[in-house]
Write a structure and sequence with these properties.
By secondary structure, this protein is mostly beta strands. The protein has no helices and 7 strands. A 7-stranded antiparallel sheet has the order 1-2-3-4-5-6-7, with no helix packed on it.
Length: about 140
């Protein structure tokens, strides 16, 4: 589980500056052999958009191995405002498919193994490929 808030120090044009976000990620380690099941939900809101939340839901699998490198294949559903700054007032709703890789978790102290941990710290996952389809405008 995570959350946070922020304040934009300078904007052009002048907009309301407060924003917040939070989310949760659930992992079933090694649900099937080297595959772990992953499900996540995230909500973002900003003062500029009258605190209307943008929501993202993801589910998929993480491929684990005996080293710290891992790969995730995730389905996603997004509903909310565009995350792209100049289009932030536009409403979006779309499904997607993402492919990400991550690094994290050192070897265990006693065995030297790289376990497939339950969760990586945020910021270590890097999406390298993402497809969306049927992108459409609509009320978030």
């Amino acid at each position: 589980m995570y959350g946070g808030s922020g304040y934009l120090l300078h904007t052009e044009p002048d907009i309301k500056r407060k924003h917040a976000h939070g989310g949760v990620e659930l992992v079933q380690p090694r649900a099937e052999g080297e595959l772990s099941f992953v499900a996540a939900a995230e909500v973002r809101a900003s003062e500029e958009l009258d605190w209307r939340g943008s929501r993202s839901y993801r589910a998929g699998f993480e491929f684990c191995s005996s080293n710290p490198r891992r790969v995730r294949q995730m389905l996603e559903h997004y509903r909310g405002h565009s995350p792209s700054g100049q289009f932030s007032l536009d409403s979006l709703r779309y499904p997607g498919l993402g492919h990400a890789f991550g690094f994290g978790g050192g070897p265990r102290r006693n065995t030297g193994e790289f376990p497939c941990k339950k969760r990586l710290a945020s910021g270590v996952w890097h999406t390298i490929l993402k497809f969306t389809w049927k992108s459409q405008a609509g009320d978030p």
